[in-house]
Every structure is written in structure tokens, then in C-alpha cells.
């Protein structure tokens, strides 16, 4: 189990993020219009997974906004923002915020969190996804990962985006 923190208190995740060089685990998620998407839908494209507990928190919302802003300038890259929020909540947020450059998807009925070792095992956020970023190349090979040390802080956008080059 990996360790992170929530408001300064250590908490564990259900496992470990994939390692650089690993193949990205296959996944199935649900988009804001209730369509199912899978890892196969992104074959041949670079993929940035912005993973977070809930879009209804300030830091999570900020990460979606920032990746949406950055995604506009990325070639052959999809930014996928993933949480266990219901698709309706993700859709409301994206609509209200004008989020159009990223794809928001829910892991509410999948094993995405378990397969990537990012389900929070403790803290008041137990059961939600730990704030993390995974970047994969066009072949689905992991080229960058970050489990944020403190859930209440934003990920290292610069490092994640630099991994795409």
C-alpha cells in the first residue's frame, strides 16, 4: 500500500500506482452522458489521467480547470479526469465551468481505483480515489506517475505535462 496524507494525517491507498514502464491497466469508465469508455478508446493517443476524490471540492475542481486549460494545446493527447463522482455531478460541473478540452469520467461502477491502487483506505475520504496523475504514451506504456503527498494539494502539472515530450 502506498501512503499519502489527508489534512496532515497519513492514510494508505489500496495498493501502488503503476510504475513507469508498466502497461496501463485496462479500464472501463462512464462519461457524463452515461456512455461507457474504455482504455481501448484511447489507443494511439497519449493519455493523461487526472485522478481525484470529488469534483465538489476546491482542489479537485482546480485540477480539472487547470488540465482543461493545458489540454487545449496538447497534440495527440487526451486528458481524462476521473473520480467516483456520479456522471451527473461531473456533467453539471463541466457544463457550469465551460470545461471542453478534457473528458470527465466516473469510476463509480468499475474497478479502476482498485486496479491502479488508488482507493483511499482511511481518512474521511475512505473509498474515494486518491489524488494522482498517470501519464501513458501512445502505446499505453506508463511514462509518469504521481501520488500527491497531501490530498488537499494540487498535482505537479508541470512534471506531468513535461512527461508528454
UniProtKB/TrEMBL annotation:
It comes from the Bacteria. It holds the Pfam family Redoxin. Its EC number is 1.11.1.24. Transmembrane segments: none annotated. It is an enzyme of class 1 (oxidoreductase). It catalyses: a hydroperoxide + [thioredoxin]-dithiol = an alcohol + [thioredoxin]-disulfide + H2O. One of its GO terms (molecular function) is thioredoxin peroxidase activity. Disulfide bonds join 60-94. The active site is at 60 (cysteine sulfenic acid (-soh) intermediate). Residues 18-165 form the Thioredoxin domain. Keywords: Antioxidant, Disulfide bond, Oxidoreductase, Peroxidase, Redox-active center. Homodimer. This is Thiol peroxidase. The lineage of its organism: Bacteria, Bacillati, Actinomycetota, Actinomycetes, Mycobacteriales. The gene is tpx.
Amino acid at each position: 500500500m502506498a501512503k499519502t496524507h489527508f489534512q496532515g494525517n497519513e492514510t494508505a491507498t489500496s495498493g501502488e500506482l503503476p510504475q513507469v514502464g508498466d502497461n496501463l491497466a485496462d479500464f472501463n469508465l462512464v462519461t457524463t452522458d452515461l456512455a461507457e469508455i474504455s482504455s481501448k478508446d484511447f489507443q494511439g493517443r497519449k493519455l493523461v489521467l487526472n485522478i481525484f476524490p470529488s469534483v465538489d471540492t476546491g482542489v479537485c475542481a482546480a485540477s480539472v480547470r487547470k488540465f482543461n486549460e493545458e489540454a487545449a494545446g496538447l497534440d495527440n493527447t487526451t486528458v481524462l479526469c476521473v473520480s467516483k463522482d456520479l456522471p451527473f455531478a461531473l456533467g453539471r460541473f463541466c457544463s457550469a465551468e465551460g470545461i471542453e478540452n478534457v473528458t470527465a469520467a466516473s469510476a463509480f461502477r468499475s474497478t479502476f481505483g482498485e486496479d491502479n491502487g488508488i482507493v483511499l483506505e482511511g481518512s474521511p475520504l475512505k473509498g474515494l480515489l486518491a489524488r494522482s496523475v498517470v501519464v501513458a504514451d501512445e502505446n499505453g506504456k506508463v511514462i509518469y506517475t504521481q501520488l500527491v503527498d497531501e490530498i488537499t494539494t494540487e498535482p505537479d502539472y508541470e512534471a506531468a505535462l513535461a512527461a508528454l515530450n
